[in-house]
Amino acid sequence: MSRAWILFWIVLFCEGLISSHGTQSQTGKNKRTSTVLRKRWWFGCSGSKPGGHAWNNNWDGRLFFQCNQAQSISSIYSIFRGCRRDRLFEFKCEYNFAAGYYSHDCHWTDYVNNFDQDISFRCPNGKFLAGRYLRSVVTMCE
After folding, report:
1. Where are the coiled-coil regions (predicted)?
2. pLDDT digits (tens, 9 = 90+) for 66-80
3. How many Å separate Cα 49 from the centre of its chain?
């Protein structure tokens, strides 16, 4: 390879690392990423879901989950993939004596968090979680 081609590729690579185009992060702030890094990110971001879990949603898909009658959510497992800017959820339900007795009075809450913010939600006494919709609404039973 001639010196001119080597110099061309070095300049192209360095220009790619230096030039930046604004992309928006999850927090809404602009972050600066190079074209080279963005291309690497794009090629390395798989749309497949990791195995070994019964995911309740797809990447960029709507999340709707509700336990069967007489059950409540017993565990929540979640992973976040930054390149997809999304999260997968796996919910598990178990029989709950209280759920079997009280699950006749269930309702969806209003939003329990703001967009792109953590959820900090505690069930009131005597209530339990039985479902989840999107990222911000839960089914609460009493």
Report:
1. none
2. 888 888 888 999 998
3. 12
Q: Identify which of 124, 125, 123, 113 has the alpha carbon closest to the alpha carbon of residue 133.
A: 113
| Cα 87 versus chain centre, distance | 2
Q: Which two tokens stand for residue 45?
A: 């971001």
| pLDDT tens per residue across span 100-140 | 665 567 778 888 878 777 878 888 887 778 787 765 666 66
CB distance 127 to 62 below 8 Å: no
- Three-class SS state of 91: strand
Tally Cβ neighbours within 10 Å of residue 74: 13
Q: Per this entry, what is the length of the chain?
A: 142
How deeply is 141 buried, as exposed, middle or buried, from its count of CB atoms within 10 A (0-12, 13-18, 19+)?
buried
Report pTM.
Answer: 0.59
Count the alpha carbons within 13 Å of 85 in the hemisphere toward its beta carbon. 9
